[in-house]
Amino acid sequence: MSRFDRYIGSSVLWSFAAVIFVLLGLDFALTFIDQVKKVNDSYTTNALLQVLAYRAPIKFAEYIPVASLIGTLIGLGALASTSELTVIRATGVPIWRIGFAACKPILLISLIGVGISEYVSPYATQQADLIERLRGQSEGRFALTGGVWIKSDGNFVYINAADREGVLYDIQIFTPNGQALEKIQKAKFARHLSDNQWRLEQVTETHFLGDRIETGYKETVPWTASLKPSHLFLASQEPEALSLSELHQYQSYLTGQELNAGLYQLEFWTKSLMPFACFALVIVALSSVFGPLRSSTMGGRIFSGVLIGIMFQNGLNLFGKMSLALSFSPLIGVAIPIALCFAIGLLLMSRKG
């Protein structure tokens, strides 16, 4: 790497670091203020802080494109305001060469973001979900929200949370008898033993016998269910909390079962194309620095970066949701706003030479 590349790249990199720090700090503060009302004896402030800390990696990955845009605007804008970019261009360095130097650190960061999305954030998000969803366990209450419903062997099963080790948390099994309800089993845990064999632990059973209701408690109860732990874990997670490999695995399973896998395909392509999105936004930032924002103040550049970032994110969400609603490929829905950014940025740069 030449001294020129290091100089441009370090300016963009430090600006990116400052922007991502501010974005994560604001997100942390606003989320804490919003969630602090949920704090009680079983879900303490310490547990809330743990949840926010575990969600930091996925937030970092999500903010990389916008932080790349604003960081490039600030980094190159600072050089433009001191006429350093003018001097560089006067020596015969073309805009594309400056853009190449600015893109190097951003592409590296975006690849790191893909690595975080694949190897770090899924495990951290799982821990955050377990803490958040199971906050009512100490009070002995079950909440039928935030989990997953499935039908297995004629029973309707609700699972509040699951982990990669084959452990299910807060299970409720509703056993019907024709149009009536025969019994309900509530278990704190269900552990996979082998094949279709599970073990329910800390089980409360309620039997409906027509003229009376009987309730009993058992430490363990055998449970036969044709359920795969890996599929249960993936089904209990939000698509954005899964890694690329898990998204690919689960969308293949859903497609094989002739079920709608659109949400998982959309999230897969959104994460896969993140480096290209960062690159496209850097091109837009570069064209803006040499174009309409050439003589703008730092505040103006930040405001413009936020505005462009919001427009890009809304466009990504719009075309992504349109792909699901109109049944065309989510890859196209994700690629359209990225391609538009590329086209606009390259067009503006070509006019500036």
From TrEMBL:
It is found in: Cell membrane. It is a multi-pass membrane protein. It comes from the Bacteria. GO terms for cellular component: ATP-binding cassette (ABC) transporter complex. Keywords: Cell membrane, Membrane, Transmembrane, Transmembrane helix. InterPro entries: LptG, LptG/LptF_permease. The keyword Endoplasmic reticulum does not apply. One of its GO terms (biological process) is lipopolysaccharide transport. The chain crosses the membrane at residues 12-33, 63-83, 95-116, 273-290, 302-320, 326-349. Component of the lipopolysaccharide transport and assembly complex. The LptBFG transporter is composed of two ATP-binding proteins (LptB) and two transmembrane proteins (LptF and LptG). NCBIfam families: LptG_lptG. Belongs to the LptF/LptG family. Part of the ABC transporter complex LptBFG involved in the translocation of lipopolysaccharide (LPS) from the inner membrane to the outer membrane. This is Permease YjgP/YjgQ family protein.
